[in-house]
Amino acid sequence: MQMQEISTDTLAVRVRRAERRDIQRLLEMATALAAHHGDVATTSARAIERDLFGTQACAKALVAERDGELAGYALLHSFPQMQWGLRILEINHLFVEDGQRGHGIGRLLVAACVSEARRQECGQMAVSTHPDNARATELYLSLGFQPRETGGTRFRLELPSNGALPEGWI
């Protein structure tokens, strides 16, 4: 994926694919994102390695560098809507460090996500945010994202590490 360097606030920002050398900073930023939402991160460098670079990686990350330091990241994955012949790229995380916000870095990360979506032949992009995150909502609306009602209740099944399913499951 070809990324370009773009200048914001007279300081160069470079968006690129995450590399293994970024794992520790991604861990720090993911932890900061969880804290921002009042959560406690339970991830690890090993989990990030598995999910982004492992043989069965399930996501990609783009990172923004400003003044030679990582200032933010976007975590994304694509999935099909087979019944419509459509592929959707979802931005699962968009994070910019506290001191780096307000300089257009989030906007540049989303633009890089659009490039990745096009590269993957996606017909749509999706992103969600906490209802109280007015700044993120404003950003997404300014970029042309439209609010969308969910199509129903989402469910999840916790898979214990020992492989056991709830009694009577099958």
UniProtKB/TrEMBL annotation:
The keyword Transferase applies. It comes from Aliiruegeria lutimaris. Gene3D superfamilies: 3.40.630.30. Keywords: Acyltransferase, Transferase. It comes from the Bacteria. Pfam families: Acetyltransf_1. InterPro entries: Acyl_CoA_acyltransferase, Bact_Acetyltransf, GNAT_dom. The keyword Transmembrane helix does not apply. The lineage of its organism: Bacteria, Pseudomonadati, Pseudomonadota, Alphaproteobacteria, Rhodobacterales. Residues 13-170 form the N-acetyltransferase domain. GO terms for molecular function: acyltransferase activity, transferring groups other than amino-acyl groups. This is N-acetylglutamate synthase, GNAT family.
